[in-house]
Amino acid sequence: MAEGGPDEGSAPPTPSMSSLPLAALNVRVRRRLSLFLNLRAHVAADWTALAEEMGFEYLEIRRLETHADPTGSLLDDWQGRPGASVGRLLELLGKLGRDDLLMELGPSIEEDCQKYILKQQQEASEKPLQVDSVDSSIPRTRDPAGITICDDPLGAVGWWWLSLMITCKARNVTSRLSLHSASLQVPIRSD
């Protein structure tokens, strides 16, 4: 970065921003980055130098040259690789001596990162509260056997009524099936 006092646009990102994924950068910032890096210049590092610093091999760089926006394609490809982050991109641009990019795009990058962080926090607050562990096999009743007829406010009468309704429904279904010459196969339990 430039010598002297830290400029507003060249201030290093906060630690939370440096670990953000590259997806935090919106189209506007990516297009402006492409405007700077797509130009072949002998005095400043272009997208090919950035690609080499990102760990891309010669044939990968040659393939990216065929795209209309090689910088945009480079960022899209790099975003899926391990270690790709906004902080790492800024670090590589600084290593390549592209302080002009850092000063010009710094405020826009920081704004995109802030929006991304706020969106992530909002999505996290809207998620339903869930317990990480599943322990449904542990009985939650005082009686280790589970629910009994004593737990029903109607007692045995309620259970009797429920079993009667199920039996009537089953008879109704089987009578409808017999009208259509069909049968209902119910396996017999042996317990």
Describe the structure.
About 55% of the residues lie in helices and about 0% in strands. It has about 190 residues and is an all-alpha fold. Helix 6 runs antiparallel to helix 7. One of its GO terms (molecular function) is Toll-like receptor binding. This is MYD88 innate immune signal transduction adaptor. Keywords: Immunity, Inflammatory response, Innate immunity.
Overall outline: elongated
Main pleated sheet: none
The number of strands is 0
Query: Low-confidence parts lasting 5 or more residues at pLDDT below 50?
Result: 1-15
Q: What's the pLDDT, averaged over the residues?
A: 77
Radius of gyration: 33 Å
In percent, how much strand structure appears in the residues? under 5%
The proportion of residues forming helix, as a percent range, comes to: 40-55%
User: Ends: how far apart?
Assistant: 79 Å
Counting helices, strands and paired strands, the structural category is mainly alpha
Report the order of strands and helices: HHHHHHHH
**Secondary structure tally, helices:** 8
Organism: Balaenoptera musculus
Protein name: MYD88 innate immune signal transduction adaptor
GO biological process, one term: innate immune response
Pfam family, one: Death
